[in-house]
């Protein structure tokens, strides 16, 4: 079982979003089970559960884990193909976000578009690497910082932007034969906590998220501290 997989097919995405099927996926992520075992947990007849399982299996969201005899019946034990799933913007290809349509480093919606592209591109890379039976070279940095003031946050973003830009200028080799392009996305946004998710969501919507993307340029992108809005509670 994979830790996480990306759903790119629209039909598979629709199947995973069905409430009953989503519940079945959650149950099967915890361990293999048969339709009869799942029936009591989801409150449906075994035949109905079996119908939903076949739909999920058809889209590669569940797979056969084994079989067992129970009386005169052979039960199929199914399991989820991943512990969790992410739906790629490719599932809504005609209306997927395009971060190149507008570029605003202080826009929460641009940050969302960048995140959507990240899911799409990494999902595509994972699919290709899996088919080719090759490892995918990736790196991720995750951290959390508490700013004492909006001014500190603005200074942090400015230094971060300058630092990333300097690294890009140092290592960028556009003329290198055999080189491979890599995308760099750095994001800064208020931490969303369960007890304050509504307030944090409102803060994001008001534009208090900042992003810095490292394009291949000769000059580092800059963010003026005065352009960074005040943090909201």
What is the percentage of strand-forming residues? 5-15%
Secondary-structure-based class equals alpha+beta
Basic shape = elongated
Total helices: the number is 7
Helix percentage range: 40-55%
Describe the protein in words.
With 233 residues, this protein is an alpha+beta fold. 42% of the residues lie in helices and 13% in strands. The protein is built from 7 helices and 6 strands, in the order E-H-H-H-H-E-E-E-H-H-E-H-E. The chain has a two-stranded parallel sheet. The chain has a two-stranded antiparallel ribbon with strand order 2-3. Helix 2 (19-30) packs across helix 4 and helix 3 (35-42) packs across helix 4. The longest helix has 25 residues, at 108-132. It is elongated. The model is unreliable at 196-233 (pLDDT under 50).
Question: Which key features would you list for this structure?
Answer:
7 helices; two-stranded parallel sheet; 233 residues; two-stranded antiparallel ribbon; alpha+beta
Quick recap:
Helix 2 packs across helix 4 (46-58) and helix 3 crosses helix 4.
Topology:
Elements: E1 5-7, H1 10-17, H2 19-30, H3 35-42, H4 46-58, E2 62-70, E3 73-80, E4 85-87, H5 108-132, H6 150-171, E5 185-188, H7 197-205, E6 210-213
Parallel strand pairs: 1-4
Antiparallel strand pairs: 2-3, 5-6
């Amino acid at each position: 079982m994979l830790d996480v997989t990306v759903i790119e097919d629209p039909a598979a995405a629709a199947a995973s979003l069905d409430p009953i099927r989503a519940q079945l996926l959650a149950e099967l992520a915890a361990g293999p089970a048969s339709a009869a075992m799942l029936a009591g947990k989801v409150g449906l007849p075994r035949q109905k559960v079996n119908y939903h399982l076949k739909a999920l299996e058809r889209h590669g969201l569940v797979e056969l884990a084994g079989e067992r005899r129970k009386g005169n019946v052979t039960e199929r034990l199914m399991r989820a193909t991943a512990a969790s799933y992410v739906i790629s913007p490719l599932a809504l290809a005609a209306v997927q976000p395009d971060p190149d349509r507008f570029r605003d480093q202080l826009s929460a919606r641009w940050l969302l578009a960048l995140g959507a592209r990240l899911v799409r591109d990494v999902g595509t890379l994972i699919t290709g690497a899996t088919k080719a039976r090759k490892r995918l070279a990736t790196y991720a940095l995750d951290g959390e910082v508490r700013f004492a003031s909006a001014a500190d946050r603005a200074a942090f973003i400015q230094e971060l932007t300058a630092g990333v830009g300097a690294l890009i200028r140092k290592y960028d080799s556009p003329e290198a034969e055999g080189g491979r392009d890599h995308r760099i996305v750095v994001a800064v946004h208020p931490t969303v906590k369960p007890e304050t998710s509504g307030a944090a969501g409102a803060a994001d919507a008001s534009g208090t998220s900042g992003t810095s993307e490292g394009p291949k340029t000769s000059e580092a992108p800059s963010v003026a501290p005065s352009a960074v809005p005040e943090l909201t509670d």
